[in-house]
Amino acid sequence: MATGKAMFAAMLIAAGAVTAPGLSCAAVSVDIEVAPPPPPVEVVPAPRVGYVWAPGYYVWRHHAHVWRAGRWMRERRGYHWIPDGWVQAGPRWHYAPGHWER
Question: How far apart are CA 65 and CA 58, in angstroms?
Fold first, then answer.
């Protein structure tokens, strides 16, 4: 009887190990039906060796656009940074998270 419980527990652990990696790759998407975000309000600093400037952008918090300031990120050789931003799709605005691209 104890071996049956142990076997069942092992099967549950194995199933969790198979499904957990897929769950961690989920993307987040936000669509809202409001006015577009205001224009950016940021002064871009002078370049820094070994770093890339990720410009500021608006996030949607508590029913309003809230400015999130830009930041320096370590350079990734062979990649370029695609900044966070909002893209219009019909009457809705879709938030597109920033990411590295080759």
Answer: 6
pLDDT in tens, 26-62: 566 666 566 778 888 799 999 999 999 999 999 989 9
Partners of residue 60 on adjacent β-strands: 65
Mean per-residue pLDDT of the chain: 80
Our count of domains for the chain comes to: 1
In a domain, 14, yes or no: no
Residue 44 backbone dihedrals phi, psi, to 5 degrees: -80, 125
3 within some domain: no
Domain range for 94 is 29-101
The residue type of 16 is G
User: Which pTM was predicted?
Assistant: 0.62
Distance CA 75, CA 54 (A): 11
**Phi and psi at residue 8, in whole multiples of 5°?**
-65, -45
